Amino acid sequence: MDGAGEGPSDSDLLMAIADDDRTAFDLLYARHFGWLHLRLSRRCADPALVEEAVQDTFMTIWKKAGSYRAQGDVGAWVWGIGIRQLLNRMRQRKTPAWHLLVHSERLVSAEDSVLLSVEHGDLGGAIDRLSPELRAVVQATVIDGLTTREAAQVLGIPSGTVKTRMMRARQQLREALT
Amino acid sequence: MVAEGVVKRYRSTTVLDHVDLRAGQGITGLLGPNGAGKTTLLRTIATVLRPDEGRIRAFGLDPGDAAQRREIRRRLGYQPQEPGFFQSFTVLAFLDYVAILKELSGREERRREVRRVIDLVDLGAVANRKIRKLSGGMRRRVALAQALLGGPQLLILDEPTAGLDPEQRLRFREVVSQVAAEQTVILSTHQTDDVAAVCDRVVVLHEGRARFEGTPVELGDLAAGRVWLADRPDASARLSWRMGTGRHRLLGDPPAGAELVSPTIEDGYLLLVGHAANLAEEPV
Amino acid sequence: MTWHVDTTQLDRYESDALPPSGMASVEMHVTSCESCRGQVAGRADDAARARVKQALDERLDTPPAGRTERLLRLVGLGEADARIVGATLSLNWSWIAACILSLAFVVLAATVGSRGAGLAAFLVAAPLVPLVGVAVAYGPRVDPTFEIATAATLPGARIVMLRTIAVTAPAIPAIAALSVFLPAGPLAFAWLLPALGLAAASLALGTLMDLPKAAAGLSTLWLLGAGMDLADAPRTSAEGFVRGFAAFHPSGQLLFASLGAVSLLLVALRRAEFEIAR
Questions:
Q1: Which of the 8 DSSP states describes residue B130?
Q2: Chains that touch A (3 or more CB pairs under 8 A)
Q3: B118-167 pLDDT, tens digit each
Q4: Is the ipTM of this complex over 0.95?
């Protein structure tokens, strides 16, 4: 994602960070702290935990900047690190927060990642009508980008169940579109 | 800081021959050509070297006595001419190491102090980079930074501007002027514009002897009435060289038809040290 | 991207007030859209941002301890001491390791070749290893930070002692392990007292001259002494041959023990000499 010709791109910054450039790191932090903190706060109700996760995420970015090899959007890469940091901490503290969020009606529902780049219309309604269990599974695997095994761990269900629920969710959405 | 009658010999050469140097608050410049003995004098003042003869006092303390010497070093910062680094260290690691050598207590205090000097010399961007990956100018800044650790009252800098480009030299002068507000700074150089820019006092060292001690203006005044511009070089002049404008600058007695100009510090310096120089040499 | 989030949507996102699909929309979009990320950045919690940044800066400003340093701290060394030793240690240990490896070859030769000559070679070579350790401990040619260190307050003697011990302490047991392989009983350990005595003596000499010079000088004297004595030594038995060198006599051993003690005393008395350049 180039910044319209002004200033270095995120992947430029990551390259500089891999070269131990503190100024580049400060700049990347300024760009990404806001949305990461915001989005992680919607997953965990404990603000201290979220701050710790954000801190560890950026420490990981500092150490692992070299391992990002132009693998698409930097934001998605950052999110992958961030959500896993948060889940680790939540699992360590054994907070029930994640499970509550997952099963509540208020939780973000799921759409296929391709569909989400479009303004929400009728499809949005279909997604909203998915049952909480199906929504949770799609949320974990599609939105948050967790693997089947990670999703199973977080939701406290077997991997097989994750897969079958994903299939059912996709089927329901496809039916809603036709 | 007072040094009186300092003598230092190395094998059969007398490197320092009864040199006096007095430095108080502000910046004192030690000016002289290479081989004049500047480094030896500075090493002696920095308590690194023992003089063969002479009397040195810093803060009223005598570096000849081990306990007093330690006390002097507690308030001292020294940037050697050839700073050595552990090449695989990062800037932070190196400065932290020097902080340990200076016995700055506690990890927290060291970290804060290291961060302070890094920001002072503007090395924040490369703080985590290995020193071997830094340019020469940046390494000089690291060397300056380590001297500033602990906020020393006496700062001794040996050729801190050598090899720096004009912009880097400007930045250096800014940092040093900032620091010199309440400290004593002694720096050596062989470039007169450094002296002109920052020094309150200057001592000219040549062949192991102090030839001049005073303000930079007084140094320039030594050449008052003896600096001329002419269209042609003149053999009777003490020193002369061709300038970029095509005219010639002459030091010494006025040749016919020459134009008197007011002296610069460089003129005074050259008059002092150039008198023994071969007329065929072209000083820069 | 054809659309961007506006302020109202962000407000509702922050208060969980969008329908689930909307929440997902905003999230997925903001993660990959630079301008919207900027918009969110402007609204973020400044206190949290500052807190996390400060914590990050503190962590990044703390240089991580290397492997050798961590090992030294495990052994009980304080942080400052561990750092001083660790700065030159891996370089020094590679010297020492090379020496011990050579010694191992000597031992190998001793077990297969002539017993007397092999044993003598081992016993004469072994004390040189700690001397190498002393030579690389400290000094203008060995430690690039020597000038700066001299002008600082930490006593040079401390640096010398820490580094010498750090190098010698593991070397001695390693060489002793080699001694076990030699079929010569307690005689195989006759190198120990000369090694310690010579190392201490080189430190004492280091108060007069550069450490490498001191170590080299004593090594030369030792080798000359060995050479001269062993040239005339009886070759009737391995033990007889080896004891031809006075150092491996009981009286010689005692001499080196005393040399060691006196040297350490001298070092203690003259330790200020390590704080000045020559």
A1: B
A2: B, C
A3: 999 999 999 999 999 999 889 999 999 999 999 999 999 999 998 888 88
A4: no
Which architecture characterizes domain A96-178 according to CATH?
Orthogonal Bundle (1.10)
Q: Where are the CATH 1.10.10.10 domain residues in chain A?
A: 96-178
The reported pLDDT for the residue numbered C112 is 67
Q: Domain B1-75+152-214 classified CATH 3.40.50.300?
A: yes
- Residue C244 has which token pair? 């031809």
Cβ density class C251-260: b for 16+ within 10 Å, e for less? ebbebbbebb
Domain ranges of chain C: 7-61, 67-275
CATH number 1.10.1740.10 is the correct assignment for the domain at A7-95? yes
How many angstroms separate the CA of residue A40 from the nearest CA in chain B?
29
pLDDT tens digits for range C28-58: 788 878 888 888 888 878 899 999 999 999 9
Per-residue model confidence (pLDDT) at position B10? 82
Residues on chain C touching A59 (C-beta within 8 angstroms): 56, 59
Nearest CA distance, B140 vs chain A (angstrom): 19
Task: Please spell the DSSP secondary structure of B231-280, one letter per residue.
Answer: SS--TTSSEEEE-TTS-EEEESSPPTT-EE-PPPHHHHHHHHHGGGS-TT
CA trace torsion B255, B257, B263, B267 (10° rounding): -40
Residues shown for chain B: 284
Picking from A164, A99, A166, A112, the residue whose alpha carbon sits closest to that of residue A137 is: A166
- Chain A hits for B134, Cβ within 8 Å: none
A20 min Cα distance to partner chain B (Å)? 5
Provide the chain C residues 41-60 that lie in CB contact (below 8 A) with chain A: 41-45, 48-49, 51-53, 55-56, 59-60
Cβ <8 Å between A111 and C3: no
> Chain B: residue nearest A19 by CA?
B129
